[in-house]
Amino acid sequence: MLVINLKSYIETIGKRGLELLEAAEKVAEEYGIDIAIAPQFTDIYLLSKNAKKVKIFAQHIDPIEPGAYTGYILPEAVKEAGAVGTLINHSEKPMRIIDIEKAINIAKRLGLITIVCANDNIVGSAVAKFNPDYIAVEPPELIGTGISVSIAKPEIVINSVKMIKEINPNIKVLVGAGISNREDIKKALEFGAEGVLLSSAVTKANNFYEKIKELAEGFIR
């Protein structure tokens, strides 16, 4: 899976987010790869109504039940808006371990796909016990640097895959932080990862289609 987190970049909200989605749809069709996009919450409905092959994810959910929680992100609301999954515990939106477990359980009940972020293989193996669908291992010090984890710290990828699969072989392992080109993705897959989570490589690109296409080529064996 190629997961593109749009974060809060001005370049990918509203109409520009739709342009990115259209580029991703074209690449998904041409290369037959699984692509997910996590837009701003305000754009989930807009993108989900225009998505065909691409999956739309929320960037976060709060572990709450419907009620008086002003300013929180209600899991039921992101599903109603059209999201089919959610990121949980991104390094820019960290959660307590007890809340990670609660969020996973709520998402499962609602049928939302879960991608839980972990900053290293130790945290990754800890959250694996909660049985999310995916775990994305991202050393925070490399996020946004353009220095790929699969190049700079391959041992994190190798150890994460090994430790997580020992706990639950059904969990798919993604890696992120600094992933910016096809070679970064090829290396990650060689080390046992099953996809990548990235952001600025696409959101800051001058041509969304050309960049996503280049990244997709990293999945071709």
Helix percent reads 40-55%
N-to-C span: 14 Å
What is the ordering of alpha helices and beta strands? Answer: EHEHEHEHEHEHHEHEHH
Estimated structural class: alpha/beta
Global Rg: 16 Å
Number of domains: 1
In one word, what is the shape?
A: globular
Mind telling me the CATH superfamily name?
Aldolase class I
Fold-level CATH name:
TIM Barrel
Question: Number of DSSP helices?
Answer: 10
Classified by CATH, the class is: Alpha Beta
Fold and architecture overview:
The protein has helices at 15-31, 44-48, 75-81, 97-110, 121-127, 149-152, 154-167, 182-190, 200-203, 208-217; strands at residues 2-5, 35-38, 55-58, 85-88, 113-118, 134-137, 172-176, 196-198. The chain has 221 residues and is an alpha/beta fold. The chain has one domain: TIM Barrel. The protein has an eight-stranded parallel beta barrel with strand order 1-2-3-4-5-6-7-8, surrounded by four helices. Helix 8 links the parallel strand 7 (172-176) and strand 8 (196-198). The model has no long low-confidence stretch (mean pLDDT 92).
Topology:
Elements: E1 2-5, H1 15-31, E2 35-38, H2 44-48, E3 55-58, H3 75-81, E4 85-88, H4 97-110, E5 113-118, H5 121-127, E6 134-137, H6 149-152, H7 154-167, E7 172-176, H8 182-190, E8 196-198, H9 200-203, H10 208-217
Parallel strand pairs: 1-2, 1-8, 2-3, 3-4, 4-5, 5-6, 6-7, 7-8
Helix pairs in contact: 1-10, 5-7
